[in-house]
Amino acid sequence: MTAEDHKNEGKIDRGRYAEERRVQEKMAAVEAEDSKTYFSRELLIWYDRSKRDLPWRRHRDPYFIWVSEIMLQQTRVDTVIPYFNRFIERFPTIRDLAEAPQEDVVKMWEGLGYYSRARNLQAAAQQIVELHGGQMPSEREHVFALKGVGPYTAGAILSIAFNRPEPAVDGNVLRVLSRYFLIEDDIAKPKTRIMMEKMIPELIPEGRASDFNQALMELGALICTPKSPHCLICPVMEHCRGRIEGRERDLPVKTKAKKPRPEQRLAVLLEGSGERAGRVLVRRRPNTGLLAGMWELPHVAAGGEDLGLDAAQLGELLEDRGLSWSPMSPYMTAEHTFSHIHWTMRVLIAREEPEALAQLAAESGVPYEAAVPEAAELDGAEGIANDGADEEWRWISREDMSAIAFPNLFLNILNKYFSGEGEQE
């Protein structure tokens, strides 16, 4: 074979290779398109047959959908259902929510946690009343402009309520897409979420945006679960690349979040005496910051090493209120984790003793009146964020708890106390 023959044969081989590669790429593209079509079709078939009967799905009311989506953030569906029903019964329209006292709104949210959600929800309702006549807007820019509404919530409202082909990417969706398409990018990074938001409109069948986004979330919640995906009953298992490659338990890739910062706190459960027998002392937090405007037991930051020193600091807080009390003794310890803080709350118990101050007053010749904390000022106390506003203190009974809102941590402590379940350590 001549050199020219070898040269021609090389050209033929390169041409054949290039053609084979074009064919492979075309087949891969067709297969990918088929995979997407299969995913959307089978997902909707499954959803139409198996979707859960949830109260916010019985109507296409944008307000109901909005409230449910805010409640479902960081909270399980089973937990949300009774809260949603009570909330809608109390505030059946956006205008009712906008015009309600904020404390009523927070009280209806009591137990769900992340209370800024409730305050933002009401602020957004007030925006809607002022700018849109009390009707949920359907324009993208107007929905995004609402207080507390981010990309996910806006996408959920626009797609579920108005059937717009908008992405609504939450943790369930990130997990499902990572596994099905074998996406190994870190879902904790914004660029990964943005990439998946761009994928969603390509997957939504014409006219089925509402059902498709709900189906995607439903699949993640019920089948494609975080730790033990139920691949054998998954409607899209046949083309799931994560399952095919045996990677379903490795995905999605997610860097671990920073652990909440531990904080030691010391609280006092001060029992009333005389006319205030059967009541305990609580205070209202400032209107900004953590647990804004909610009620709690008086407490301070604690070092955790010297209980006597920490108790003295707590005592100064009560002395500033003109109170005296019996010796404090350990009552219980409770814990609560916020998104960025973990509180270990050691609770002491004591009884109000106004007679002690009255006796001291008599000896000194200075008239004494027992303090009745209502709304006196307490500035710069240890462990209390101060925004310049007066703080309100109250003596409350068990019945009073139905009218004011407490964070879960203090709600549980007080419920145990009033029910007699709490025991001294």
UniProtKB/TrEMBL annotation:
EC assignment: 3.2.2.31
Catalysed reactions, as listed in the record: Hydrolyzes free adenine bases from 7,8-dihydro-8-oxoguanine:adenine mismatched double-stranded DNA, leaving an apurinic site
Cofactor binding note from Swiss-Prot or TrEMBL: Binds 1 [4Fe-4S] cluster.
Broad EC category: hydrolase
SMART domains, sorted: ENDO3c (SM00478)
InterPro entries: A/G_AdeGlyc_MutY, DNA_glycosylase, Endonuclease3_FeS-loop_motif, HhH-GPD_domain, HhH_base_excis_C, MIG/MutY, MutY_C, NUDIX_hydrolase-like_dom_sf
Alphabetical UniProt keywords: 4Fe-4S, DNA damage, DNA repair, Glycosidase, Hydrolase, Iron, Iron-sulfur, Metal-binding
Cofactor: [4Fe-4S] cluster
HhH-GPD domain segment(s): 71-222
Pfam families per the UniProt record, alphabetical: EndIII_4Fe-2S, HhH-GPD, NUDIX_4
Protein purpose: Adenine glycosylase active on G-A mispairs.
Family: Belongs to the Nth/MutY family.
Record PANTHER family: ADENINE DNA GLYCOSYLASE
Protein name in the entry: Adenine DNA glycosylase
Organism: Saccharibacillus alkalitolerans
